[in-house]
UniProtKB/TrEMBL annotation, chain A:
PROSITE patterns for the chain: ABC_TM1
Name of this chain's protein: ABC transporter permease
Name of one Pfam family that matches: BPD_transp_1
Annotated organism of origin: Mesorhizobium neociceri
Keyword set includes Transferase: no
From TrEMBL, chain B:
TM stretches of this protein: 15-36, 72-93, 105-131, 137-156, 185-203, 209-229, 241-261
Domain ABC transmembrane type-1 span(s) in chain numbering: 68-257
A biological-process GO annotation: transmembrane transport
Name of the protein in question: Spermidine/putrescine transport system permease protein PotC
Compartments in which it is found: Cell inner membrane; Cell membrane
GO CC annotation: plasma membrane
Keyword set, alphabetical order: Cell inner membrane, Cell membrane, Membrane, Transmembrane, Transmembrane helix, Transport
Length: 289, 267
């Protein structure tokens, strides 16, 4: 197939994604430099106000006052996304190793079981935790039944429940890439290490971990990026009281009606996420040599 | 005693119990939802016997039926459009000769997987409102087609890579022209992967919440958006029942796609 026909076949995909995804992204960058229209949308004049809003607030006399509340939301989102990534790594690595150690038939079944949650609606997966964690929920009910507590524990609507929801949502994204790098492990390496009296810990540190690292790195990107912009876990399990970037962006287009600020926030999130992906693929190429 | 048992690196003490716990973490919450959906009591947490009545209530709810109808229509259109686009794209990427731009094309097609959902949601909203496009369902069909393309493309591309080019070479040696080659050789071999890709696209479209919520307007509410509205009002048996239905649909479709893919490999 020559280049002309190749371009013809690939053109629809590139055009559809280019027009309906890349163009809107660029449009949003443009919107972030405009003035908010209180009825939604944007008006002239062009301004940096949306970006100033990250750190300052306009006072009544139009002077800028330092106000870190939005910056704190951004920092909190980054912190929670990083915590999610770390927890997923710690929880997921042993699972990936366990699957690698199984027979091919069992590997297939286990991999299906890890993949399946990805295809189940995140809305429903997140909602399940409300059933468990709320005041009248399963966890409090069980604890009360056992006589451990008399008043329900506030399990829902805090950083802990948000973190739980994020880990629950994104854990499969960590297990799968680690598995796919570990799968290629050469059993003779481990046997040789053992013959040389290496302990289990040494085998892990010297053989398994170096092999798992590219997968862990890929998994970390796949977890961190969507966790940073996540909306459902903070909204349903955080009760919408403790804002994260995802809900903050969404609010600018619904209740707050500040489109430029919402566009500025999503521009920043996109730049961060794309940078993470680019660094990752550079690293991956270097490691492949 | 230590030397009596041969060293088996495939066995780490305690690891199977740990893995079982992680799978319990994955699936127990879903199981709890399903059990609650069959609970006849209105007080979700108090078990009062097995009952189908909440499923009957959901089936008789006109608003849920309308939302489900919207979701299915959007998913069917997005599936057909994205699968056709993805099939052409996958063939070009795997069989085409490009001197330049392959990396850029691949990166562009992967964009919907990389850009955070909330960003896609609000930028699509900005785009449609900037153009003055207020077409309800039609806007949603376009938005869904965009993010379904990579999901439909991946299985097709994987299949093309697995089967190699030898059969197509053979067809070419027998003087088949490009179109007949496609109709008689490539397409039949690719059909299972195309079906798997289409099913994945359908599930992804049916399940989408965030983008649909921002892009939909009154009258074009999809099922997940409607369910979210119900959840905001509190935990009810109806929410459990409709969530269970959506859960079952996803599992059945994904299992089907996997079985098709498996047969594909054996053939």
């Amino acid at each position: 197939m020559g280049p002309n026909r190749t371009w013809l076949l690939i053109a629809p995909a590139m055009l559809v994604i280019g027009i309906f995804m890349v163009l809107p992204l660029l449009l949003a960058v443009g919107y972030s430099f405009m003035t908010a229209n209180p009825y939604g949308g944007v008006t002239a004049p062009a301004t940096f106000d949306a970006y100033l809003q990250f750190l300052y607030q306009r006072d009544f006399d139009d002077s800028l006052v330092f106000s870190p509340s939005y910056a704190l939301i951004i920092l909190r989102s980054i912190y929670l996304a990083m915590a999610t990534t770390l927890i997923c790594l710690v929880l997921g690595l042993p699972v990936a190793w366990y699957i690698v150690c199984q027979t091919p038939e069992r590997r297939r079944i286990l991999l299906f079981a890890v993949t399946l949650p990805f295809w189940i609606n995140t809305l429903i997966r997140t909602y399940c935790w409300i059933l468990i964690l709320r005041d009248e929920g399963l966890a409090n009910g069980a604890l009360r039944h056992a006589g451990i507590i008399s008043d329900p524990l506030p399990l829902l609507y805090n950083d802990g429940s948000i973190l739980l929801g994020l880990v629950y949502t994104f854990l499969p994204f960590m297990v799968l890439p680690i598995y796919s790098t570990l799968e290629r492990i050469d059993a003779r390496l481990i046997e040789a290490a053992h013959d040389l009296y290496a302990s289990r810990a040494a085998v892990f540190r010297r053989i398994v971990w170096p092999l798992a690292r590219p997968g862990a790195l890929a998994g970390a990107t796949l977890v961190f990026a969507p966790a940073l912009g996540s909306f459902l876990a903070p909204d349903l399990l955080g009760g919408g009281k403790k804002l994260l970037i995802g809900s903050l962006i969404q609010m600018q287009f619904t209740s707050s009606r500040n489109w430029p600020f919402g566009a500025a926030l999503s521009t920043v999130v996109t730049v961060v996420v794309l940078t993470v992906f680019v660094i990752r693929s550079r690293r991956a190429q270097e490691e492949r040599g | 005693m230590n030397g009596a048992k041969p060293f088996d690196w495939r066995h780490t003490p305690g690891l199977s119990a740990y893995t079982a716990l992680i799978f319990l973490f994955f699936y127990a919450p879903l199981l709890i939802l399903v059990i609650y959906a069959f609970n006849s009591s209105r007080l979700v947490t108090v078990w009062a016997g097995f009952s189908f009545k909440w499923f009957v209530a959901v089936a008789n709810n006109g608003a849920i039926r309308d939302a489900a109808y919207n979701s299915v229509i959007i998913a069917i259109v997005a599936t057909i459009a994205s699968t056709a686009i993805a099939t052409a794209g996958a063939i070009a990427l795997e069989r085409g000769r490009l001197r330049f731009g392959r990396g850029a094309a691949t990166a562009l097609i992967a964009m919907p997987l990389v850009v955070p959902e909330i960003v896609v949601a609000i930028t699509t909203l900005i785009f449609f409102s900037g153009l003055g496009m207020h077409h309800g369902l039609f806007n949603l069909m376009i938005a869904h087609t965009v993010f379904c393309i990579p999901f439909a493309l991946l299985p097709i591309q994987a299949r093309l890579r697995d089967m190699g080019g030898t059969l197509e070479e053979a067809g070419r040696d027998l003087y088949a022209d490009e179109w007949r080659l496609f109709r008689r050789v490539t397409l039949p071999l690719l059909l299972p992967a195309i079906s798997a890709g289409a099913i994945m696209a359908f599930v992804v479209s049916l399940d989408d919440f965030l983008i649909s919520m921002m892009v939909s307007s009154a009258g074009s509410t999809t099922l997940p958006v409607y369910i979210y509205g119900m959840m905001r009002l509190g935990v009810t048996p109806e929410v459990n029942a409709i969530s269970t239905i959506l859960l079952a649909v996803s599992i059945v479709f994904v299992a089907a796609a996997l079985l098709i893919g498996r047969r594909n490999k054996l053939a």
